[in-house]
Amino acid sequence: MFLVEKLVYELLKKIGEDPDRKGLKYTPERVAKAYKYFMRGYRQNLKDILNGALFEEKYDEMVIVKNIDYYSMCEHHLLPFFGKAHVAYIPNGKI
User: Which end of the chain, N or C, is less surrounded by CB atoms within 10 Å?
Assistant: First the structure.
């Protein structure tokens, strides 16, 4: 059992659950896998994501991008949340 799985196992015990009961048997592994997936963005390289999407442009009017879906993790509760973002900016040589 890996460290995160062990910690989830211990957490289940601390909150009064039996991590060895049938319904929770693979929960530590599932939670570890889910957290790794949810937090994969922290391991990504921004340049790889942008993939050349920024380009030089002499444009000085507001750029607005709406309805950007996002998914993240609450740092206070370690729970996922999602929403839509709207961004507006005045370019300074790059769009």
Answer: N
Q: What is the 3-state secondary structure (H, E, C) of 59-95?
A: CCCCEEEEEEEEEEECCCCCCEEEEEEEEEECCCCEC
User: What φ, ψ does residue 87 adopt, rounded to 5°?
Assistant: -125, 135
pLDDT in tens, the chain (95 residues): 699 999 999 999 999 999 999 999 999 999 999 999 988 888 999 888 888 788 888 898 999 999 999 999 998 998 999 999 999 999 998 88
Own/partner long-range contacts of 78-85 (Cβ < 8 Å, ≥24 apart): 78/35, 80/38
DSSP letter string, 45-56: -HHHHHTT---B
Dist CA 71 CA 73 (whole Å): 7
Distance separating alpha carbons of residues 10 and 55, to the nearest angstrom:
50
Quick one: CA dihedral 48, 52, 54, 56, positive or negative? Answer: positive
